[in-house]
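User: My instructor asked us to take a sequence, write out its structure as tokens, and then describe one feature of it. I'm not sure where to start. Here is the sequence I was given:
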Amino acid sequence: MASLQLSVPNIVGSRFKRRPVRCAVERQDLFNRIAPVYDNLNDLLSLGQHRIWKRMAVSWSGAKPGDSVLDLCCGSGDLTFLMSEKVGSYGRVKGLDFSKEQLSIASSRQYFLSKACYNNIEWVEGDALDLPFSNGYFDAITMGYGLRNVVDKRQAMREMFRVLKPGSRVSILDFNKTTQLLTAMFQEWMIDNVVVPTATVYGLAKEYQYLKTSIKEFLTGEELEKLALEVGFSKARHYEIGGGLMGNLVATR
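Assistant: Let's start with the prediction itself. The structure tokens for your sequence are:
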């Protein structure tokens, strides 16, 4: 049976301390508010394509059977469940997020989906800037639509580097801050004319208007590659997918 574990020591051992989440409170509140309709909106707004992009991200992570892996900023668990299927029943999966509401939904999905390998998943309420895991703990990390929302991207990358084993990879999926004018214009049009109006139906127009600002403040693919190398990753490659609307950074420790 699935259980929502919010006390870190019960999940990863007494050597880890429960730490306060360092984030903008309004961002945490935002993701708690949108949690009940987050998955439905993702399906509507991407025409189901987000599921393909997430499978690509998991594939690029290099996770394999028996591995210990982390899905960072896991939300309602889409990537976490895919990572669970990759590593199998003998692997171990941590899904970490700062939103209790998202983790509650993820835990409920784990129970109702009731797939044998999903018993290897443990949910952790935690901080992407101060991960409650020891150095070199994981064989692979995924992060879907999370890096754009952390308050310190460099520190988040440092933490991912720290908890990865040498030679292992992190795969980061997010909206792409494109340098192509036409793609950028189309992306902005989609947000104004599709994303926000659709969110309005759910009473979340204001919450999804935040999306445009967060993309504008994000890093380009080239800047993400540079950041990964600066914090210590040996290799970093950014791939544009979804016609340039999305991007996936793959970095090797």
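For the description part of your assignment, you could build on this observation: The longest helix spans residues 181-201. Try explaining in your own words what that tells you about the chain.
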